[in-house]
Specification:
The complex is a heterodimer.
Chain A (H helix, E strand, L loop, with lengths): L3 E4 L2 E4 L4 E8 L5 E7 L6 E7 L2 E5 L6 E7 L2 E7 L7 E8 L10 E2 L3 E5 L1
Parallel strand pairs in A: 2-11
Antiparallel strand pairs in A: 1-3, 3-8, 4-5, 4-9, 5-6, 7-8, 9-10, 9-11
Chain B lengths: L2 E3 L3 E5 L4 E8 L3 E9 L6 E6 L3 E5 L2 E6 L4 E6 L8 E9 L5 E2 L3 E6 L1
Parallel strand pairs in B: 2-11
Antiparallel strand pairs in B: 1-3, 3-8, 4-5, 4-9, 6-7, 7-8, 9-10, 9-11
The chains are: A mainly beta, B mainly beta.
Chain lengths: 115, 109
């Protein structure tokens, strides 16, 4: 596997379900990100992990819970979602030195539909 | 905070040249990135500018003016496969990427 992979690619879940999205990067990067992309809206940064520590959480509802067990893996745990959470969820990774931010490499995304 | 603006949609003809503009307001500017995103796919990195001037990479070039808070992406010899959304993103010291709304480019035969 190369680059950034995400599973599943598509997910349909009810509002009472619990599911997890998985991201894995094979680029040796030290930072990973979760983004939400809704129709006709800019990419919204949700969470940032740098060296496995969460460094940013952009006022995301608690029904989204990230987990970064190591620098190559990132999860997004979902529970009691709302229909407006339906979107494309993109994972990205990059190298960062703290001061310098380098280009991000994106996974293919998970298309989530909440019914 | 950061504010990034791009035109929503543009149309151009195959073989032509198109310029996609991006204006931004931020403090502690630390770089501007352009990404291409085809419908239903992930964004892919195109270019990076941190100093004023033009960066050329094949058919694609990107320009930056930090004093004006302005960048453009220039696409030459347009091909049908260039139909996509083009995203401008800005980073600032101590901040992560903030993406603009994207410009959807349609290339017509």
């Amino acid at each position: 596997e190369t680059g950034v992979t995400q599973t599943p690619r598509h997910l349909v879940m009810g509002m009472t379900n619990k599911k997890s999205l998985k991201c894995e990067q094979h680029l040796g990067h030290n930072a990973m990100y979760w983004y939400k992309q809704s129709a006709k809206k800019p990419l919204e940064l949700m969470f940032v992990y740098s060296l496995e520590e969460r460094v940013e959480n952009n006022s995301v509802p608690s029904r989204f819970s990230p987990e970064c067990p190591n620098s190559s893996h990132l999860f997004l745990h979902l529970h009691t979602l709302q229909p407006e959470d339906s979107a494309l969820y993109l994972c990205a990774s990059s190298q960062t030195s703290g001061l310098e931010t380098y280009e991000q490499y994106f996974g293919p995304g998970t298309r989530l539909t909440v019914t | 905070g950061q504010n990034i603006d791009q035109p929503t949609e543009m149309t151009a003809t195959e073989g032509a040249i198109v310029q996609i503009n991006c204006t931004y307001q931020t403090s502690g500017f630390n770089g501007l990135f352009w990404y291409q995103q085809h419908a239903g796919e992930a964004p892919t990195f195109l270019s990076y500018n941190v100093l004023d001037g033009l960066e050329e990479k094949g058919r694609f070039s990107s320009f930056l003016s930090r004093s004006k808070g302005y960048s453009y992406l220039l696409l030459k010899e347009l091909q049908m496969k260039d139909s996509a959304s083009y995203l401008c993103a800005v980073t600032s010291y101590g901040q992560n990427f903030v993406f603009g709304p994207g410009t959807r480019l349609s290339v017509l035969p």
